[in-house]
Amino acid sequence: MDRLLFILSISFGSIAAGYITRRVTGSRTRGFEKAIPSISRFLKLLAFFFLNPVAVVSTFWGASLPDGRVLALPLLGLGSVFAGMLAAYTAIKLMRIPPERAGSVFACGAFGNVLTIGGLIAYTFFREPGYFLVQLTNLTMYPAYFLLGYPISANIGLDRKPVFRLSLASFKENPFLVLPLAATAVGISIRLSGIPRPDILAGVVAFVVPISAAVLGFSIGLTLRFTRVKSYLGEITAVIVIRHLLLPLLMIPAAILLGFGNISDGLPLKITIILSCMPVAFSALVPAAIYGFDLDLANSAWMVSTGLLAVTVPLLFVVFHLIL
């Protein structure tokens, strides 16, 4: 129960802190209100591209494969990204969503909060072995986000022809996007070199994982506008169906067929269950901030999707402790 409360307090407490800070400080200081977009963007970049890579390096450095079959996790993660992209693009066409909104819908449908919230839940329930499997699943997802998702969402949001192919344009425009990928490469390289990981780094991971989630939550809370949600009900519904219904229906049966339930007391299956129902990713808000399409829609979809954690996390707790 303590772990359950810890996850919920980090997830929702940080968001509430950011929202309260904006409401209290912004009403008293006009300059702070104007600076909020810049502050929020800085905090997102700090957590996403600097704090998270520290945990990535440390985890891959100290990791060991429990079974060769878990190497299918990166393929499963990549498949979930493609499924989210295809479903989001289909929804955009069927609903005739205008470009400035469509870019946000595409990113929110395609990008799941695998590393930050998924990593927090996995680490809290299963410590580093669980967190490593999250990182392993994420091994192909982040490259897909940056090489495919970002340029496609930009093209859709800026009313350009969406070209579904790999692109390095995002890295040229925003070099910091390479940091999460570089962190993975560094962690794997050190692991292969045979250099033992210092024991202190295990404590660093335990600190960085919740702090990163809290910083990102606070940054989102600063920009939340609850009154905007009702303006995007159709788009948000489409995102919720993709992220919380379609993807679990695809990923969980696939994990069972791959035999994940028979490895390490079912840990790979449990991690897949966690990741399959994760909300819209923090990274889905980055394209809107970078390229200038509808950030309020992205924030609103993220907020509603993340709000479902109040149901999802207790349900996962029950499943893992009473069923699996």
Total domain count: 1
Q: Radius of gyration in whole Å, from Cα?
A: 19 Å
Q: State mean pLDDT (0 to 100 scale).
A: 85
Globally, the shape reads: globular
Show unreliable segments: none
CATH topology category name: Na+/H+ antiporter like fold
Structural class given helices, strands, pairing?
A: mainly alpha
Number of helices: 13
**Major pleated sheet:** none
Helix content: over 70%
Elements, N to C (H/E): HHHHHHHHHHHHH
- Strand-residue proportion: under 5%
End-to-end gap: 17 Å
CATH class reads Mainly Alpha
Number of β-strand runs: 0
Architecture in CATH?
Up-down Bundle
Structure description:
With 324 residues, the protein is mainly α. It has a single domain (2-323), classed as Na+/H+ antiporter like fold (Up-down Bundle), CATH 1.20.1530. Helices cover 78% and strands 0% of the residues. The chain has helices at 2-28, 30-62, 73-95, 99-110, 114-157, 169-173, 178-193, 200-223, 233-257, 267-276, 285-291, 295-307, 309-323. α2 runs antiparallel to α8 (200-223), α4 (99-110) runs antiparallel to α5 (114-157) and α9 (233-257) packs across α12. The longest helix is centred in the middle third of the chain and has 44 residues, at 114-157. The protein is globular.
Explain the layout of strands and helices.
Layout lengths: L1 H27 L1 H33 L10 H23 L3 H12 L3 H44 L11 H5 L4 H16 L6 H24 L9 H25 L9 H10 L8 H7 L3 H13 L1 H15 L1
Helix pairs in contact: 1-2, 1-5, 1-8, 1-13, 2-5, 2-7, 2-8, 3-4, 3-5, 3-9, 4-5, 4-9, 4-12, 5-8, 5-10, 9-10, 9-12
